[in-house]
Write a structure and sequence with these properties.
mainly alpha; 0% strand; globular
Length: 411
Amino acid sequence: MSLAWLSLIALIIAIVLSCFTRLNVGILGLASAWIVGVYFGGMGLNDVLGGFPTQLFLTLAGVTLLFSQAHLNGTLDKLALRAVGLCRGNVGFIPVMFFLLGAAIATMGPGNIATAAMLAPMAMTTASRAGVPLFLMAIMVGNGAQAGALSPFAPTGIIVNGIMDRIGLGGYEFRTYLAGFAGHAIVALGGYLLFGGWRLFTRTYVGGEETSKEAAAFDRKNVITMAAIGGVLLSVLFAGANVGMAAFAAAVLLAVFGVADHDQAVKRMPWFVIIMVCGVTVLIALMEKTGGLDLFTRFLAFMATEQTATGVVAFVTAVVSVYSSTSGVVLPAFLPTVPGLVMRIGGDPIAIASAMNVGAHLVDMSPLSTTGAMCLTGITDTKDVRPVYNRLLAWGASMTVVGALLCWIMF
């Protein structure tokens, strides 16, 4: 059997195991790349490990460390409390606020998963007290967090932009982010209208402890943390600084000033996802060298035409993403196929890449995915969990088709 087929089979095994087990497929990817490359391909270990994404690793580590500190010292929570207070009791605007808040915080750098973990419990608790349907709130806060996922400052955006830069599609960071934001905003608005969110504007919510001015007041730690985050954003936007190294520098300053628990922040970093992304990237790099990626691309080209490409790739990535990690497995596996796919069937490479990004993310409101699961964990009354679970499962499944149609129309 050729090396191309061996490397492709290794990727397929990794994707399947990521769907049905809790094994970190990044570790599997590293081991598979080593075995296939060294023992079947006669390559040196340094050649195999040459595909390790050092820059991506440092960027992910720096950004997640900084925002783990900001979460631990309460800065992000207080930002959320202040935003909720802006609703001033208008029940109809509360779900909209949580969508906007999720998008804003995720865009700043924590990303979709960390933002959902922080906001979902607050959102679902507020929904119970204010009389907002729990399923409606889950759609709004979850899609809000997802809308900021492709920010160039967020972990998933860093992963996607790094891959796109490597395959010759760099320089489209803002367009990639806007495509993701627009896709989630459209489906969130559709859900809001479909499930009666507009009727909530006739109600008033007095509020509670979670929106009090005292709870949302910034202290010294929060001010310094916000200044550090602002410094990182400004240095990247206007001084061309590397976002990962700037985040590391800001994290060091927070530790020196004693405004964040540095040890706990390191432990809270999403090491599972970082290892997963880097390991799968090594395997994908080996596939490029052995021709396995070309075989994978042929399979996708067989199913699509130039006219249907965006819809087809959105559907395929969405189906896999229902059961697997979007940022850790699906996008690192599928995005590198874009140049070869365009060579075979034609089309706009940025449009096809955007369809993959948006299609894979829209299904993440399924309770089988992290964002959907976070919304379920925020429900305080156990009798409400199963109905919301069932509706989120149906919503996530429907997004495979809805997302494909939306991406076909958008791109």
